[in-house]
Amino acid sequence: MYFWWMILGFQAVWFSCAWGISHHYPLLPLIVSLVYLNSYIAKQSPKKPAYLFLLRILLYGFLLDSTLGLLGFIVFEAAYPKPIEWLQPWWLSLLWLSFAASAKASFFWLEKRLPLAVLLGAISGPFAYFSGQKLGVFIFIDIFGYALLAIGYAIVMYLMMKTFQKQQTPLE
Predict the structure, then answer these.
(1) Secondary structure class of 157 (helix, strand, coil)
(2) Are the CB atoms for 2 and 43 separated by under 8 Å?
(3) Nearest to 164 by CA among 44, 9, 61, 49
(4) What is the pLDDT of residues 55-112, one digit of tens each?
(5) Which of 120, 108, 124 is closest to 161 using CA atoms?
(6) Helical axes 90-107 vs 27-43, angle rounded to 10°
(7) DSSP per residue over 51-85, as a string?
(8) Residue 33 — φ and ψ, nearest 5°?
(9) How far is Cα 36 from Cα 6, in angstroms, rounded to an integer?
């Protein structure tokens, strides 16, 4: 049951972020993602590797999104006021944390298939942002932004798979 919760729960977080932000219901993504993340952390033993993994993926996502924002390749809905409107919004940070929490359940079968993991990251990452753009959480994403998202997600997937392979204590 936990396996399905991790996969379907992440989809609920993604939708709550995309729909909630675009329809001006900011509490929706906050509540859904905190419930989801809490259920993930509650299952982890010991908790320190799980927290470190979440923070690592959050950092990768923060750097990717904020860099694309700074360069003008992406414009976020509900971004911060000038001069830091390029910074990754809080709801996208929750989405990255939830993505990290779902990773082991969603991608366990890719651990030993590194090239496939990289390829799927390069395809699915930009597709998720395209879907988010259609729902209105991104005001603008440049074509070069999509290309850089593909590269960024390919790198994130590579780093995640390497982390899973090295992990002393398995994440669930």
Answers:
(1) helix
(2) yes
(3) 49
(4) 999 999 999 999 999 999 999 887 778 888 899 999 999 999 999 999 988 888 888 8
(5) 108
(6) 40
(7) HHHHHHHHHHHHHHHHHHHHTTSEEETTPPPTTST
(8) -70, -35
(9) 8
Q: What span, in angstroms and rounded, lies between the C-alpha atoms of 163 and 66?
A: 23
Q: Mind giving me the DSSP string for 1-26?
A: -HHHHHHHHHHHHHHHHHHHHHTT-T
User: How far is it, in rounded angstroms, from Cα 58 to Cα 67?
Assistant: 14
Instruction: Return the structure tokens found at 10.
Output: 């992440």
Tally Cβ neighbours within 10 Å of residue 7.
Answer: 12
CA distance 158 to 166: 12
pTM: 0.92
